[in-house]
Amino acid sequence: MRRTSSFRLSRRTRFLLDELASRLGISRTAVIERAVARFAEEILDAVSPLARLAGALDPDEADAMLEAVRTFRKSKPTPPGM
What span, in angstroms and rounded, lies between the C-alpha atoms of 50 and 23? Predict the structure, then answer.
């Protein structure tokens, strides 16, 4: 579900936002969403590959993936001497 957000932009940023939306033929919301996604991808790739999954899965998918990891860990043979 989309939620309304309110924030202040400089005149230059507002101009750029409007210009991008106009040239691309998309809404200002779409420009902001794309920009944030691209920036997050750039930053999160540098921080942690796992962070890229944040928000990528719905709760049921995330639970299923977590359960698969747990099952895999339990079925993994323990090396001798450990």
Answer: 34
pLDDT tens digit sequence for 67-80:
888 888 888 676 66
Q: Is residue 21 part of a domain?
A: yes
Phi, psi (degrees; rounded to nearest 5) at 76: -70, 125
Do 30 and 21 contact (CB within 8 A), yes or no? yes
- Residues whose CB is less than 8 angstroms from the CB of residue 80 and which lie 6 or more positions away in sequence, other chains included: none
Reading the block at residue 56, the tokens are 């990528």
pTM metric for this prediction: 0.54
Q: 65-77: buried (b, 16+ CB within 10 Å) or exposed (e) per residue?
A: eeeeeeeeeeeee
Domain carrying residue 67: 11-75
